Amino acid sequence: MPDPNSTPILRYERQPVEFQEYDPRAPMAAQYVIDLIQTQIPSVTVEHIGSTAVPGCAGRGVIDLMVLYKNEPVEPILTMLDALGFQWVQRTNALPDEWPKGAGAVQFQGNLFRLHIHVQPSDHPGVAEKRIFRDRLRSDPALLAAYMAHKQALITNGTTDPIEYTSAKAGFVVRALETFAK
Question: Among candidates 3, 76, 93, 1, which has minimal Cα distance to 40?
């Protein structure tokens, strides 16, 4: 395992979830990491998703990235992500809904940005869902306001464990996607 102090991606420190205002540097930090990954692994596409990809969307402030691949084995990709310094939250790809998930952090413009990466085949249905939800938040101010209020209420009511927080907001995302499909 590479030393996280000698890699571009720093150690991810798991912390209780706190509600943070939107940081306009997040998309630039995301692009920095996207460029870093795509330089090392030109066969993948990397896409910024999640709240930090939506201008004005407050939340926990973690940058989410999808690392998408086509027609190639995933293990060499994961090995290259290891070399960059990503740490694995989950690295079992035995089930389609459990594609590798990683974490890390990057120092950018005087701030430490925490990162989540989701390594998936580009044709996985979850890819389209993540894009649709991100794009709906970008284009629907009422949905964006409701989503931020939902996230802030979760945190205010004590849902600060990262796994519990992610699970608790999942219902909102599912309902938003169902509404869009109608």
Answer: 76
89 three-class SS: strand
pLDDT tens by residue, 28-47: 999 999 999 999 999 999 99
Does residue 149 fall inside a structural domain? Answer: yes
1-5 long-range contacts, Cβ below 8 Å, gap at least 24?
1/82, 2/82, 2/83, 2/85, 4/85, 4/87, 4/104
Neighbours of 120 (CB within 10 A): 21
Look at the chain and report how many structural domains it folds into. 1
As beta bridge partners, residue 22 has: none
**Residues contacting 172, CB < 8 A, separation 6+:** 146, 147, 150
This prediction has a pTM of 0.89
Domain assignment present for 166: yes
